[in-house]
TrEMBL record:
Residues 102-206 form the Mur ligase central domain. Residues 273-398 form the Mur ligase C-terminal domain. It comes from Candidatus Adlerbacteria bacterium RIFCSPHIGHO2_02_FULL_52_17. GO terms for molecular function: acid-amino acid ligase activity; ATP binding. This is UDP-N-acetylmuramoyl-tripeptide--D-alanyl-D-alanine ligase. InterPro entries: Mur-like_cat_sf (IPR036565), Mur_ligase_C (IPR004101), Mur_ligase_C_dom_sf (IPR036615), Mur_ligase_cen (IPR013221), MurCDEF_CellWall_CoF430Synth (IPR051046).
Length: 431
């Protein structure tokens, strides 16, 4: 019954959203990719909100339901029928009467199943399309015939560009760079760390606090002949710079100068669960990357852990990577093998993550350094007992594994969980 009702709701909400876009003519930035969409969306919002009325997708509202909800400016009613009726009435009000409406929409467009992006691209007129990383083994590949089909699905968003629109591409990813030819004469701007990127970061280093622990990153943003120093607070990892650079590239596309864009990004912080630095118990530091996981994202997080200065031990707590289908065993083993070369202690959480433990053992990690769990909170309780001052702990896993529960067990200020951690809404807390 809920499936039928959901289909009807999505149809009605989408019709209202299409009508609202036609009536109010907002400028639209649409973000897709397999890694970093939400962080990129939030960074772009920071640049645009400095000078206009802007609305962005809330949290990770990127689905067939989330997009019309953002356009209509209404909340997710979950399974509350009266809430959905109210949402439909609010959408009808926007169509029937003139209301104050955002000048810009910053929308996150996801692809859980084949056709998700294509259905949106048919009706959404976009001024700037931003494509983040498209790794060889993307998340959600389980529901596609091949990883290449995921790339094709995401790339279909390019067809939504207006004639005078701009395509912003992550230039360090060959799969993304190869999409340049689909712009059909439209303007293309690239971002990344490579020297060929139009907007790039140089001289990047980790910022250390008074106690010698990482507190963020700094460097210079370069476009053309100009450059500007920047600092990213509260998160680490070169992949955590991608949203910052993507937002600067959007600023460039819209005629902002570099100083304005970087100044606007000064207030940007990575969303919860995205390589966020969280103080841990016993004078430890947590790298909270618990929003979601995929092979590429896990690899990037482990590489970051490997290169951070540390007084104690490097500990990785890795949960299942879901929606990999037939690729699951191989990809979990690869992640485990990389963890063996990266950290001193490995915790795995979940049934599939057992293959990480096997991969770590095969790569030479001692059995005494590997701890396997099925439950994220129990893993956190055992981890707490093992922590010693100076340890740095990376915690990461797919959404359904709920690795934020592990963080909650070992964070120094659990009373700030609602502020610092992902999935703290009442609906999530019930699960």
């Amino acid at each position: 019954m809920w499936t039928i009702l959901k289909t009807i709701l999505v149809t009605l909400l989408t019709l209202e959203a299409r009508g609202v876009v036609k009536k109010y003519h907002p400028h639209i930035v649409a973000v897709t990719g397999s890694v970093g969409k939400t962080s990129t969306k939030d960074a772009i919002y920071a640049v645009l909100a400095a000078g206009a009325y802007v609305r962005r997708s809330e949290k990770s509202f990127n689905s067939e339901v989330g997009l019309p909800l953002t356009i209509l400016g209404v909340p997710n009613a979950w399974k509350n029928p009266l809430g959905w009726v109210q949402n439909l009435l609010d959408g009808f009000f926007l169509l029937l009467f003139n209301a104050r409406y955002p000048k810009w929409l910053v929308l996150e467009v996801g692809a859980d199943r084949p056709g998700d992006v294509k259905r949106v691209a048919v009706w959404l007129p976009v001024d700037v399309v931003v494509i983040t990383r498209l790794p060889e083994m993307p998340v959600h590949v389980e529901y596609f015939d091949s990883p290449g089909d995921v790339v094709e699905e995401k790339a279909s968003l390019i067809s939504s560009l207006k004639q005078d629109g701009t395509l912003v591409l992550y230039g360090d990813d060959e799969n993304v760079e190869n999409l340049r030819g689909r712009a059909q004469g439209k303007r293309v701007i690239t971002f990344g760390l490579s020297k060929n990127a139009d907007v790039r970061a140089e001289s990047v280093s980790v910022c250390l606090g008074e106690d010698g622990e990482p507190v963020g990153m700094e460097g210079r943003v370069v476009w053309g002949e100009t450059s500007e120093p920047f600092a990213v607070k509260g998160s680490v990892g070169t992949h955590a710079l991608q949203p910052f650079l993507a937002a600067a590239a959007v600023g460039k596309a819209l005629g902002r100068n570099l100083v304005e864009a970087v100044r606007a990004l000064g207030a940007y912080e990575a969303p919860p669960g995205r390589m966020r630095l969280v103080p841990g118990l016993k004078e430890t530091l947590i790298i909270d990357d618990t929003y979601n996981s995929s092979p590429a994202a896990a690899e990037a997080a482990l590489e970051t852990l490997k290169h951070l200065p540390v007084k104690g031990r490097r500990i990785a707590v890795l949960g299942d990577m879901l929606e990999l289908g037939r690729h699951s065993v191989e990809e979990h083993r690869k992640a485990g093998a990389l963890a063996a070369k990266t950290c001193d202690i490995l915790f795995t959480v979940g049934f599939r993550a057992r293959d990480m433990a096997e991969g770590a053992l095969d790569a030479g990690m001692s059995d005494s350094s590997i701890f396997q769990h099925e439950d994220a909170r129990r893993a956190g309780k055992e981890l707490e007992a093992m922590l010693t001052p100076g340890d740095i702990v990376l915690i990461k896993g797919s959404q359904s594994v709920r690795m934020e529960k592990t963080v909650e067990e070992v964070m120094a200020e659990p009373e700030r969980a609602a502020e610092l951690l992902v999935r703290q809404d009442p609906e999530w807390k019930k699960r």
